[in-house]
Design goal:
This protein is α/β, with parallel strands linked by helices and 284 residues long. It has twelve helices and five strands.
């Protein structure tokens, strides 16, 4: 029972029934009723504060956040269920963000275990690869970057840029990475994106003897190395002010330039201050 609703009921019928009788009928202790009524805020005041919070934030927050703001800004402690019922009463529900589609129409969905299991060190080339897709929102239209990296020396083996985030994006990257390399029993780790769970992608990997591995749902740390690489690319090569201001051709050139710098020029502590290519060549 919502406290303010019960208080309204008692106030409406107290001329007809005793407080004790109504409390007994609703299974509420008489002391609880008087404690509710003794609050410094009344039902209408609480409702008004909730309405004000929702209106000020343009109905973009849920009942849990409203509850937290009541406590922070007004020192009012109230159960989230109470807030939710009041928001429902006045139709103040936040607008729900549409869930991202996680499948491709007409495609089989193949989800595999996490064989990598955050073991990001490799003892030899082509033992463990990681891959991911990231957004490039800096050009005339959105571009997508697919990258495959070898965990042995953090070398970027292949990358593909496209204006479509589809399975061909990851298939092209996979085929480029495999050219001239012995990839039998190589672990290739990704998230559970629809491109990676597609039957065609899984079949291509299996045909080459690659063991696919996938992060757990909603756990970016399972693929932290490639996530960190894409973050570095954006922060080091693109300014936040560049967003949507470059040509797509320039975006592609900047990515190409960074990939060369990353593989051939950037030293890594874990590689004894050598670049990925230098480490691979000296270790051969």
């Amino acid at each position: 029972m919502v406290p303010e609703v019960f208080i309204q009921i008692v106030e409406s019928f107290k001329h007809k029934y005793t407080v004790k009788a109504m409390c007994k009928c609703f299974g509420i202790a008489k002391a609880t009723y008087y404690r509710w009524r003794g609050k410094s805020w009344g039902p209408s005041e609480l409702e008004k504060k909730i309405i004000d919070i929702c209106e000020n934030l343009k109905f973009r927050i849920g009942h849990r956040m409203v509850r937290d703001l009541l406590r922070k800004e007004h020192q009012i402690k109230v159960n989230r269920n109470t807030v939710q019922k009041i928001m429902q009463k006045f139709n103040l529900q936040c607008q729900v963000k549409p869930k991202r589609q996680n499948y491709i129409a007409g495609e089989s969905k193949v989800v595999v275990p996490n064989y990598l299991d955050r073991q990001f060190n490799a003892s030899k080339p082509n033992e463990k690869w990681v891959t991911d897709i990231t957004y490039l929102p800096y050009g005339e239209k959105m571009l997508y970057l697919s990258t495959i990296m070898d965990l042995y020396n953090n070398e970027v083996l292949a990358y593909t840029i496209s204006d479509k985030q589809d399975k061909s994006l990851v298939l092209d990257t996979l085929k480029r990475a495999c050219e001239g390399r012995d990839v039998y029993e190589c672990i290739l780790h990704s998230d559970q994106g629809s491109q990676y769970t597609s039957y065609e992608y899984q079949a291509e990997a299996e045909k080459r003897g690659i063991i696919t591995s996938m992060s757990r749902r909603g756990n970016c740390f399972d693929n932290a190395v490639i996530e960190s690489f894409h973050s570095s690319l954006k922060s080091e090569e693109f300014s936040p002010l560049c967003r949507g201001k470059l040509t797509n051709h320039t975006v592609r050139e900047k990515v190409e330039s960074y990939m060369y710098y990353y593989n051939y020029c950037r030293p890594f502590s874990k590689l004894n201050c050598q670049t990925p290519i230098e480490f691979r060549v000296l270790a051969a």
